[in-house]
Automatic annotation (TrEMBL):
Protein known as: HTH araC/xylS-type domain-containing protein
Domain HTH araC/xylS-type: residue ranges: 186-294
Native species: Candidatus Reconcilbacillus cellulovorans
Database matches in SUPFAM superfamilies: Homeodomain-like, Regulatory protein AraC
Record's keyword annotation contains Signal: no
């Protein structure tokens, strides 16, 4: 009998953006995997303290929890890039992705860094998905489109899912096998992850340790064991994972000018908007209003 196959591949955020020579993005982390592709110009990128000069066509891969930043255009002119943030809940798939150590994948390498077939397939899938994102965004103005652009976007997301999987298996070092955790370990990690996702938008101000302790007590495990299991499966601590979810949701809501910072802080469970603003700046290097000005700044 064939095994039951269930996995969630979430494209959390994807955008194509043109920025001027003054644009910068400060050091930050999140619990997601990220591809950053330069479409025009050159970008000065920093990943885990390592400076990278990213040329047109180069792809940078960032793993969850890794500090990264953009120091803007290296050429002094307009920079156009495409960023895609994604997550996958299957532990074996995550293990393969976490095992990929190479950060930059150049468009034009020498014989030692020649592009593989899985990398070419990934590059093609990213380009197709980027085109679908633009088409779907343009279709929002159409009153009746029959759902065509949305279905095309989903179809290309599935193709991207397959391409990422093949690339991850080919890109990880041969000394980094995909680890298969026992089923009870995976079930516990998934339960914790589901709870953290609900909590990120629950308006609850309880500390994350309270959440972990409650689940641990209900399932008969110690909080310390639950934390170790979660880190083993997802690559970050529960606190770090929840922080990333909260930051992502805050950024999403900050793009909506109809929502005030006070509205957003309340939705995220903060009783004091000032405390939320301080936390947001600590996490991202920008105040909420600073981030809002950044994303609405003309390219």
């Amino acid at each position: 009998m064939a095994p039951d196959v269930q996995a969630a591949f979430r494209v959390v955020a994807a955008h194509r953006r043109a920025v001027d020579r003054f644009w910068r993005y400060p050091p930050h982390t999140h619990p997601l995997f990220e591809f950053n592709l330069v479409l025009e110009g050159r970008q000065r990128f920093v990943v885990d303290g390592r400076p990278i000069l990213q040329s047109e066509g180069d792809i940078v891969f960032v793993r969850p929890g890794v500090v990264h930043a953009s120091e803007g255009s290296a050429a002094g002119g307009t920079l156009i890039y495409f960023a895609l943030h994604f997550d996958v809940d299957d532990p074996a798939f995550r293990s393969a992705l976490l095992g990929v150590e190479q950060i930059i994948w150049p468009a034009n390498g020498d014989a030692a860094t020649a592009e593989t077939a899985p990398m070419r397939a990934l590059r093609s899938a990213l380009s197709d998905y980027m085109a679908a994102v633009v088409e779907e965004a343009d279709s929002t103005a159409a009153p009746h489109d029959g759902g065509g652009p949305r279905i095309a976007l989903l179809a290309r997301a599935m193709r991207l899912f397959a391409a990422v999987g093949e690339w991850a298996l080919s890109a990880r070092p041969e000394t980094a096998p995909v680890r298969r955790e026992p089923e009870h370990v995976l079930a516990l990690a998934r339960t914790l992850e589901d709870e953290l996702r609900r909590r990120a938008v629950s308006e609850s101000s309880d500390p994350v340790r309270t959440c972990i302790a409650a689940i641990a007590g209900r399932l008969g495990y110690s909080p310390a064991y639950c934390t170790r299991v979660f880190r083993r499966v997802y690559g970050v601590s529960p606190r770090g994972y929840l922080t990333g979810l909260v930051v992502r949701q805050a950024k999403l809501w900050l793009t909506d000018p109809a929502l005030s910072v006070e509205d957003i802080s309340r939705r995220l469970g903060y009783r004091d908007p000032t405390h939320f603003s301080k936390q947001f700046k600590r996490w991202t290097g920008l105040s909420p209003l600073g981030y809002r000005r950044l994303v609405h700044r003309p390219g």
